[in-house]
Amino acid sequence: MSERIIILNFGSQTTQLIARRLRELNVYCEIFPYNKFPEYQDDIRGVIFSGSPFAVYDKDAFKLDISNICNNFPVLGICYGAQLIAHASGGKVEAAGTREYGRANLSVVDSSNPLLKNVNANSQIWMSHGDTITEIPDNFEVIASTDKVAIAAFQIKNKHTWGVQFHPEVFHSADGMKIFENFLDICKCKRNWTPASFIETTIADLKQKLGNDKVVLGLSGGVDSSVTAVLLHRATGKNLTCIFVDNGLLRKNEFENVLNDYKHLGLNVTGIDAKNKFYTALTGIVSPEQKRKIIGKNFIDIFEGEAAKLTNVKWLGQGTIYPDIIESLSITGTTIKSHHNVGGLPEHMKLKLVEPLRLLFKDEVRRVGMELGMSENLINRHPFPGPGLGIRIIGEITPEKVRILQDADDIYINLLRQYNLYNDVWQACTILLPVRSVGVMGDERTYENTIALRAVTSTDAMTADWAKLPYDFLSKVSNEIINKVKGVNRVVYDISSKPPATIEWE
């Protein structure tokens, strides 16, 4: 990349939103843990410090010597980031009388300041903090306030270092994008990172990295692996072999449908029926993490076995994307969940990994796919997890449970399409719960399984809201599943958002 902004993550839930806003402004950025500043710095144009759940004076707070960064790059501190700059410079940060959360209005003190250029004088902003900056050093200048926060934004005089107490990355901050635009102008960013430029750079990098080596890629039928396949195909041509594994955890008829979808792309695709191998390995396993790792290991075993039939295969291609990386490696070192593309790989693998999409968000992957000329059917498919239905069956996996879930899922997805709701939803899925309940069908008492329906709206899967699907649609889905899927007598709808819940149940 010719230029990038570094975002140092101090643990805020909205760190990923900062990255999303910068990417929307056609600037490439990366998120790093607060204590892992990148060694290669020639292409860094600026640095942003994120918020944090901590107070700067907490003994467990994420601390960092920021002097070297502030002396070498333009810096913007957001909430905790602003407090860290003030605290490290000799200012005072104290607990606010009450937690300040929600909308506020910004009073711009210095409209000539480059960070606040063209920001409305009474702009709405979003506050979310329990501490506030009460004193700043003499070499600091207040550039904005609110009726409750005297130091809502500041600049260190004669330095390209700013801090804002509010969250410009949040939608409710009306001029948040303008503030980011102004910061990018301060950083002298060209703002030329587009899908076309990504494709050109990525293919060139892949050609250099892979040379004449052969690559094996596991296809899933989803947009991530499909875009990965096309990029690798353009870089390596006939040296790419794609493998589509039926692990017995795909959607109904998915194996046949996906193979048909790939015919027009000119890819070399091999289909493998490995259902029994996966079912055997998963017998008796109920832990979500264990299931993910077992599925990942079996995928690798199959790929390495297929690669052994070929000559000079050295690389395993994967459709890993940025949210996979972020969620699998949290700031505290605690795993939220292991993604199949990240946490399910064995420590020692004969093949080296190549992941051309690992720094893209899902909507960026879709834009790259459109730029590559791929069909809308492939590009706009809902996300489907690597472990497939294995993490939508809560508890032990059996062929009978898979059959029940496949049938219910097929009804749900097809009705979403029939009601023209499919493209209004980011992701929809069915979950088979380890719960049986009493029901009455005809004149008989039943004691059968419960299906949970899940549908969310989102931009990048980092946050998501439950989809407000029409009642008549939900009623239709429930009736169809209960009447047509043997083994189900109850359907419920999940109305949890992310956070605090995740999109998938496991």
Task: Give descriptors for this structure.
alpha/beta, 15 helices, 506 residues, 19 strands, five-stranded parallel β-sheet, eight-stranded mixed β-sheet, 25% strand
Question: Which helices and strands occur, and which strands form pairs?
Answer:
Layout: E1 4-9, H1 15-24, E2 29-33, E3 44-49, H2 67-72, E4 75-78, H3 80-88, E5 92-105, E6 107-108, E7 124-135, E8 140-145, E9 153-156, E10 161-164, H4 176-186, H5 195-210, E11 214-219, H6 223-236, E12 240-246, H7 254-261, E13 269-273, H8 275-282, H9 288-309, E14 313-317, H10 322-328, H11 340-343, E15 352-354, H12 362-371, H13 376-379, H14 399-418, E16 427-441, E17 444-457, E18 465-466, H15 471-484, E19 488-493
Parallel strand pairs: 1-2, 1-3, 3-4, 4-10, 11-12, 11-14, 12-13, 14-15, 17-19
Antiparallel strand pairs: 5-7, 6-8, 8-9, 9-10, 16-17, 17-18
Helix pairs in contact: 5-6, 5-12, 6-12, 8-9, 14-15
